[in-house]
Amino acid sequence: MVRMSAEERRESVIRAAMSEFAHGGYSGTSTEAIARRVGVSQPYLFRLFPGKKAIFLAAAGRCMTEMRQAFEEASEGLEGEEALHAMANAYTRIIDEQPERLLMQMQTYVAVAAAEAAGDREFGEEVRGCWTELWEAVHLPLGADIGETTQFMAYGMLINTLVAMGFPAGHRVWEGFYASARRPASREP
């Protein structure tokens, strides 16, 4: 049996944490559950990360980074409306194929609000930094147009909300979206 390096184990912890936090949120997920999913002890988990907050921030950062990369790849070489539709298609595909990523995004926003309500601004600053990079990845292909970027991100947040609430593809709430942002019935879970 080949042993994993600390970096490979750290990567497996981030992936496991994304899944656990996606379903249980920050407060409802134990580090024990993450360690169990990875197959390590909690003491080993804490050799890789200094605490639960660091694990959550690594998972949230990874979620945002992967979304940013998906937008960059989808819009590469494109501008304006072509870029918009390519990124919208990429986003709806990710949501349909990797629903835990959507749930992790939603849990991240809730965790930031809870941390800030408890006086922890550092938590939100780190997440806002990742989100700003995501925003920039959309902004530039859309011609650096503030209005277009805001509308695209607003659509994304509305999509997040509708999917998280379980609105099925084909429901009338999807009718106002441009076609590339609608959930196709053929991909409905």
What is the H-and-E element order? HHHHHHHH
Gyration radius, rounded = 18 Å
Shape: globular
What is the share of helical residues? over 70%
Largest sheet data: none
SSE topology sketch:
Blueprint lengths: L5 H23 L2 H8 L3 H7 L3 H24 L4 H18 L1 H19 L3 H19 L6 H19 L25
Helix pairs in contact: 1-2, 1-4, 1-6, 4-5, 4-6, 4-7, 5-6, 6-7
3D architecture notes:
The protein is mainly alpha-helical and 189 residues long. It contains eight helices and no strands. It has helices at 6-28, 31-38, 42-48, 52-75, 80-97, 99-117, 121-139, 146-164. Helix 1 (6-28) runs antiparallel to helix 2 (31-38), helix 1 (6-28) packs across helix 6 and helix 4 (52-75) crosses helix 5. The protein starts with 5 loop residues before the first helix and ends in a 25-residue tail after the last helix. The model has no long low-confidence stretch (mean pLDDT 90).
